[in-house]
Amino acid sequence: MWFLRDLAISHPAETVALLRDAGVDPQGIAAMQPKMRHLNIHLEGVACPAANIIKQEMLAVGGDAAVARGAVSCRLSATDVILMGTRKQLGRFAVKIAAQPFGLPALAERLRGLLANIDRDSWRLATARREIALGGKTLVMGIVNVTPDSFSDGGRYLDRQRAVDHALQLAAEGADILDIGGESSRPGALPVSPEEEMSRVLPVIAAVAEQVDIPISIDTTKAEVAREAIAAGAEIVNDISALRFDERMPEIVRDSGAALILMHMRGTPRDMQTGDLSYRSLWGEIVGFLAGRIAEARNRGIPEERIVVDPGLGFGKNLADNLRLIRELKECRVLGRPILMGPSRKSFLGRIAGEAPKDLGVETITAITACILNGAQLVRVHEARAAKKAAAVADAIREGRS
Predict the structure, then answer these.
(1) Last residue of a domain, one of 119, 146, 178
(2) Is there a single domain that holds both residue 131 and residue 51?
């Protein structure tokens, strides 16, 4: 009697291995592999005439497209559309709609770009000092909070020497990048002046840069702080505002050659967890926001190869949303950029486990592992040693290697 299996395929390379194991010849593998990759692509607010063409053309290539009731008769002005098909069918669909009206040539171009992005699994992140390989091996970014009020370690490293010693310890434990910040971004945090922020971080960055040769990131939303931090030895700007809080920031990043991390956040740290935290489309808003910020950075002269994206765990999201961000992280692949996740000691983990932020070591490692298995290339953590071990195991599981 035949034994039936529902194949779990999470990576394009797995389809090649399955076909090879089944004895398929190389030409057959090349032909069949795209047919084994099923995708569901969501489009928002498509005018009904365009939606009807999309439906017809997807059916014509052997796939399908879900539209709202009433779209066919154009009783609606617009509808969301879900394209359903294999990688090969969607490629053929893009070719077919390239000559159609109602803005469909632009959709064809965007779809081709999306398909290329979700196929990508390696990057070379450029800074002014080096290229950082991303993909395959997850990189660990160690957190150094030179603040009196950060949510889990506020005041612990406000002393300059203690902050330097902590950064060096993180490096010794295997941190691949050090992220040094002088202004808390915890919910409800008040801003500090550029002068105060610089007095906290610049001596630490300068001292650490003299003693280790790993990239240093400055965690700031202020152009002046970023400029001086880069002069002191930083080569990455981690801007939680995604260039929105200081109009001079794009110029500083562009001219310095620094890499840039763009994060999604509603509002400011002071008010991000107040008011209505609901989303009509969680991933629709996050991906749309980050795509817009990437475009803004490029328009301001920052090359895309210098950009990392961060969906913003804990920044303007409720518990269910944070869990969904981890579970559905592959949604971020459409942006084509490496993904950073920062679950370390986040309060939503404490609400699940009933623990204070400083006691969330096990919970943090669990969340880090889930982030990596679901597509993160970098994880931002308070404790490097355990995170490196967890990342090594998660990478081996994800990549299927020993």
Answers:
(1) 119
(2) no
159-184 residues labelled b (16+ CB within 10 A) or e (exposed): ebeebbebbbebbebbbbbbbbbbbb
| Residue with tokens 């096990």, as numbered in its chain | 362
Q: Which two tokens stand for residue 265?
A: 């956040």
Neighbours of 99 (CB within 10 A): 9
Same domain for 137 and 79, yes or no, is no
DSSP-derived 3-state class of residue 84: strand
Residue 135 DSSP class: B
The domain of 68 spans 12-119
How many folded domains does the chain comprise?
2
Contacts of 264 (CB under 8 A, 6+ apart): 242, 285, 286, 289, 290, 310, 311, 312, 315, 316
Q: 85-102, pLDDT tens digit by residue?
A: 999 999 999 999 999 999
pLDDT at 369 (0 to 100): 98
Residues 157 and 201 sit within 8 Å (Cβ to Cβ): no
Average pLDDT over the chain reads 92
- Token pair of 282, please? 């969680």
Q: Sign of the C-alpha dihedral, residues 193, 198, 199, 204?
A: positive
Residues in the chain: 402
Instruction: For residue 51, give Cα distances in angstroms to 77, 92, 94, 271, 297.
Output: 10, 17, 14, 39, 32
Give the active site residues.
346, 380
Q: pTM for the whole thing? A: 0.91
Spatial separation of the C-alpha atoms in residues 261 and 359, rounded to whole Å: 28
